[in-house]
């Protein structure tokens, strides 16, 4: 009975706070200076939360058609502004970038990312800048990527041989499992000087499941984030799942770091990424990195580094299986440029414009992050003549921008050719062209943008060049989406492959 009473008190307090925020505080401001953007009315207390459904990016895109490119939604006791066109995204992520450079507090940052001690959720400041600088210098930047190109080649070779064995047994390739296994090992070689998974099996499959669960739960709209007074109730059960998942990841990361420390003598004079980070715990900036910071950073790199690129490659292959003429044209380009006597190498990529167009089209239609990670306004500001209050959350609907008919002709069609000529030929996904921002833009653009583009182009190109692809007999391609921080296929792609290169190419 005591629990029921306290529950009623919490709901009553939250309701009172909601009405005070909505009516009293707003009434104190001059009406001429506080016209917020249009948006749906929503429900009492919870606001627009119930309107988002299971596919928030789709629901918000539909709302934008009614309310416009900049919408304001009351979400519990919080306000959220949504940008749904390139112009609106540019206003927030370029013109007002510094005002929207922080993340709002949320359960994912607290319960998964070690209380926002990582690079993804940390406040914009000295520690975030240090983590980003070290990551760029030693793993994610241009020079660093060149330095570990051989690692990518070797691990991709392992994947090709595993796929060849499946083809010889006439067994299908489960694409996301194969990709996650390979990418985790690529990242493990750079961070820890070793493969994370020696053989593909239950351990690597569990890691894949953990990554998908993290990216899914971190993308949920958690009621407790928007109505803090009832967060303790964990109505959706999200927080309980996050705590359990965090413990599993923490055990894995702790084991990795302990084994890495024990083998330090083997890397004398040849430090890996973790060695560099550990050596920079005390640094010239005066910012101290704790073991928790380092664990949180590793969590970022292993999860985002595998899942986002993996999902784009899987969507690309699915689209080519659905549109065989695209696969045929890609094969023709590669046979002309590379031939069939050797594997694709990264230096081939600039000579493969159609492959690059396929990747851009996948970034457009199937962005790995459909809604950018939330940001929050440090100060009140104005956009398109509308007032945006302080502490308003910002969500940029990257998925909606990629399907905007005012920007893209026939946006629902998968047409790589759109990037081969005209104004679209110069569009680049690195955050400067707001028509195509799969990695976001501005100060908080994804730190792994360069790496993501390299991995998608190189791995997808190699898979397409090395094999013919077809669906198993009697199986149709399922193109349904599953919403999360990363946009997964609802049904994993499983396909039959047939080698198309000289046998010696698979032994490299």
TrEMBL record:
Keywords in alphabetical order: Heme, Iron, Membrane, Metal-binding, Monooxygenase, NADP, Oxidoreductase, Transmembrane, Transmembrane helix
GO molecular function: flavonoid 3',5'-hydroxylase activity; heme binding; iron ion binding
Ranges that cross the membrane: 6-25
Binding site residues for heme: 446
EC number: 1.14.14.81
Cofactor: heme
Enzyme class: oxidoreductase
Pathway info: Pigment biosynthesis; anthocyanin biosynthesis
Catalytic reactions of this protein: a 3',5'-unsubstituted flavanone + 2 reduced [NADPH--hemoprotein reductase] + 2 O2 = a 3',5'-dihydroxyflavanone + 2 oxidized [NADPH--hemoprotein reductase] + 2 H2O + 2 H(+)
Database matches in SUPFAM superfamilies: Cytochrome P450 (SSF48264)
Alphabetical list of CDD domains matching this protein: CYP75 (cd20657)
Keyword Plastid: no
InterPro entries found in the cross-reference section: Cyt_P450, Cyt_P450_CS, Cyt_P450_E_grp-I, Cyt_P450_sf
Domain of life: Eukaryota
Its job: Catalyzes the 3'5'-hydroxylation of naringenin and eriodictyol to form 5,7,3,'4',5'-pentahydroxyflavanone and 3',5'-hydroxylation of dihydrokaempferol and dihydroquercetin to form dihydromyricetin.
Family per record: Belongs to the cytochrome P450 family.
Name of the protein: flavonoid 3',5'-hydroxylase
Species of provenance: Vitis davidii
Originating gene: F3',5'H
């Amino acid at each position: 009975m005591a629990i029921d009473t306290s529950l009623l008190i919490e709901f009553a307090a939250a309701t009172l706070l909601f009405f005070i925020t909505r009516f009293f505080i707003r009434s104190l401001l001059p009406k001429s200076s506080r016209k917020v953007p249009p948006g749906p009315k929503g429900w009492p207390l919870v606001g627009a939360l119930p309107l988002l459904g299971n596919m928030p990016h789709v629901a918000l895109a539909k709302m934008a058609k009614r309310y416009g490119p900049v919408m304001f939604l009351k979400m519990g006791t919080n306000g959220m502004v949504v940008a749904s066109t390139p112009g609106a995204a540019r206003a927030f992520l370029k013109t007002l970038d510094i005002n929207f450079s922080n993340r709002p507090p949320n359960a994912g940052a607290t319960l998964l990312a070690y209380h926002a001690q990582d690079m993804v959720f940390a406040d914009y400041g000295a520690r975030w800048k240090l983590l980003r600088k070290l990551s760029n210098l030693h793993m994610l930047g241009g020079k660093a990527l060149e330095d570990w190109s051989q690692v990518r080649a070797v691990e991709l070779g392992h994947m090709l041989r595993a796929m060849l064995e499946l083809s010889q047994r006439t067994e299908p390739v489960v694409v996301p499992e194969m990709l996650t296994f390979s990418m985790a090992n690529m990242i493990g070689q750079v961070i820890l000087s070793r493969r994370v998974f020696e053989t593909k099996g239950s351990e690597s499959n569990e890691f894949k499941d953990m990554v998908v669960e993290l990216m899914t739960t971190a993308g949920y709209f958690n009621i407790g984030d928007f109505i803090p007074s009832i967060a303790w109730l964990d109505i959706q059960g999200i927080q309980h799942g996050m705590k359990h998942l965090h413990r599993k990841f923490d055990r894995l990361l702790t084991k990795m770091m302990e084994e890495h420390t024990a083998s330090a003598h083997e890397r004398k004079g040849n430090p890996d990424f973790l060695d560099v980070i550990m050596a920079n715990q005390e640094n010239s900036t005066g910012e101290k990195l704790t073991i928790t910071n380092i664990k949180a950073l590793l969590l970022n790199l292993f999860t985002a580094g595998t899942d986002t690129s993996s999902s784009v490659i899987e969507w690309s292959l699915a689209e080519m299986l659905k549109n065989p003429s695209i696969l045929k044209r890609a094969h023709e380009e590669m046979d002309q440029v590379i031939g069939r006597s050797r594997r694709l190498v990264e230096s081939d990529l600039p000579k493969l414009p159609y492959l690059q167009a396929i990747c851009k089209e996948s970034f457009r239609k199937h962005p790995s992050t459909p809604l950018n990670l939330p940001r929050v306004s440090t100060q009140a500001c104005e956009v398109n003549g509308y007032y945006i209050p302080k502490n308003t959350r910002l969500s940029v609907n990257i998925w909606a921008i990629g399907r905007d008919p005012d920007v893209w002709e026939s946006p629902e069609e998968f047409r790589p050719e759109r990037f081969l000529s005209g104004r679209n030929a110069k569009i680049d996904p690195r955050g400067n062209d707001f028509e195509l921002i799969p990695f976001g833009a501005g100060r908080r653009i994804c730190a792994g943008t360069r790496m993501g583009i390299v991995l998608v182009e190189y791995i997808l190109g190699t898979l397409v060049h090395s094999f013919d692809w077809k669906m198993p007999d009697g199986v149709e391609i399922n193109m349904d989406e599953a919403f999360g921080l990363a946009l997964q296929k609802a049904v994993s792609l499983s396909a039959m492959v047939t080698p198309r290169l000289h046998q010696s190419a698979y032994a490299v």
